[in-house]
Amino acid sequence: MAVTQQTSAEETIALDNQYVMHTYGKLPVVFVRGEGCFVYDTEGKEYLDLVAGIAVNGLGHCPPKVVDAICKQAATLMHTSNLYYTTLQPQLAKFLVDISGMNKAFFCNSGAEANEAAMKLARKATKIAGHPEKTEIITALQSFHGRTLAAITATGQPKYQKSFAPLPPDYKYVPYNDIEALKATAGEKTCAIMMEPVQGESGVHTATTEFLQTARELCDKFGAALIFDEVQTGLGRTGKLFGYQHSGVIPDIMTLAKTLGGGFPIGACLAKGHYADVFEPGDHASTFGGTPLASAAAIAAVTEIIEGGWVENADEVGKYFRERLSELPGIKEVRGLGLMIAAEFTDPIAKQIASRALDKGLIVNPIGENILRFVPPLIITRELIDRAISIIRECI
Ligand code: PLP
Fold first, then answer.
1. 152 within ligand 1 shell (Cβ under 6 A)
2. Torsion sign across C-alpha atoms 198, 90, 63, 261
3. Of all atoms in ligand 1, which is nearest to the CA of residue 233?
4. Which of 298, 300, 307, 358 is spaced 20 to 30 Å from 59 by Cα?
């Protein structure tokens, strides 16, 4: 069988079950095409996608400007080693620096890798400052920072860590938004505090301004780095370009991925002040980090997110979506910012709703028993939200 042959849904699922490691609990649907807020399966059935690759397809599926940039760059220069200069990587770095308030960028391929870079950077910064004893990294319980060994260690959820001990040492955890716990945990040994401005994976919980301000003050007091994991919140998702802008608390290091490439894999670790100059040749690297192809995709995607007004759209349509969700029966709480939204139900019906919705052509993401998470494309309209709400209502 030719490897590129089109297979039926049944054949695809059988092949996947036999040859792909079972790291995901997959739903029985096979997608073959996407356009805007919709994806289509092998039978041509249309699905309104409110998951968007888990906050990756910020501009929807196959955004024309990103597709165009990728096609042109693919025919020009896809990859060359980071041992040589290429034209687009520094342009992307300057672009991200200009919009984020950071000073320099390191490029990689995913959120976990961006967080690895951030943690290595913070650890090296304390060594350079003459404080090798400052090694502790504080993160939040219920956080999510990715799946590498250090990233699952930073992730304050034992379920992701339990099979992989021993974990890297010197991580400490505090309940999210618990200022007193943060104060009690930070100290002379603190190397970094790493937080998501809004926790996504565990059900969309927003950090209070006071909590982030306290983290900032403690980092300043103890000479530690404040790292914001903006892998999910960054680039318009929360109705502002960056999640940190809701609080006004500025981190020393910020990580990006997901929507950065408009669907193409790329991650970035941005750093400010003296943190921007910590890494030297040999300290950190990524073969594929910031290739011409990835950089072209990211420049096109971020330009369109800003110039298309999609950050403002996320804010406006996000408010509308939250209002409409609150009207649904059985809702306990609707929370979130912009188009990063969770609807918590009183009863454990989230999985059932998600599976019925899939049958009716709507993709939503259940978290646990009671929560539905929505991270739709930033380009979604009120009309499509209305369509989603009526399907969810039917499914309840
Ligand atoms: N950080 C946050 C806040 C995330 O939401 C995720 C993924 O969901 C990651 C890191 C990991 O990103 P990746 O899967 O690209 O490694």
1. no
2. negative
3. 3
4. 358
Say whether 288 is catalytic. no
* Its pTM surpasses 0.90: yes
Domain positions in the chain are: 67-278+285-307
Q: With a cut of 70, which residues of the chain have pLDDT below it?
A: 1-4
In the residue annotation, 229 being an active-site residue is answered as yes
How many separate helices (H) and strands (E) can be counted in the chain?
Answer: 13, 17
Strand partners, 5: none
Q: Is the CB of 257 under 6 A from ligand 1?
A: yes
Which ligand 1 atom is at minimum distance from the Cα of 113? Answer: 16
- The rounded percent of the chain whose pLDDT value lies above 70 is 99
Sequence-distant (6+) residues with CB within 8 A of 360 are 391, 394, 395
Mean pLDDT of the chain: 97
Q: What is the pLDDT of residue 196?
A: 98
CA–CA separation, 92 and 70 (whole Å)? 14
Residue 256 sits at φ, ψ, to 5 deg, of -130, 155
Neighbours of 306 (CB within 10 A): 15
Please spell the DSSP secondary structure of 62-107, one letter per residue. S-HHHHHHHHHHHTT-----TTS--SHHHHHHHHHHHHHS-SEEEE
Q: Please give the pLDDT value at position 158.
A: 96
Fold entry, domain 67-278+285-307: Aspartate Aminotransferase; domain 2 (3.40.640)
